[in-house]
Amino acid sequence: MEKINLNEYLASNEYPGRGIAVAMAPDGRQMFMIGMDEWNIRNIKRITGVDPEGKIFKMMSFAGSSRDVADPWYTGNFDDTYRDVVEGCEAFLE
What we know:
The protein is mainly alpha-helical.
């Protein structure tokens, strides 16, 4: 598998937005892809294609909820976001 320097790769990319790099492994493997909200899920599926193996999840689905993780950009409340992420992560790890 060819390794790339992610910082160099992102610096050479003209995309002016922010976010994380999402890509399939060179051998096509994909473990879990977890989005914080419905927009994340749509974008992950747009980038990776269909999800026939059911490996793309919304974070709160692990905690039995269909709601999005509270976004502090809109709510101004990082405590709610932290609680949501902890709840989702703990449920994922169970």
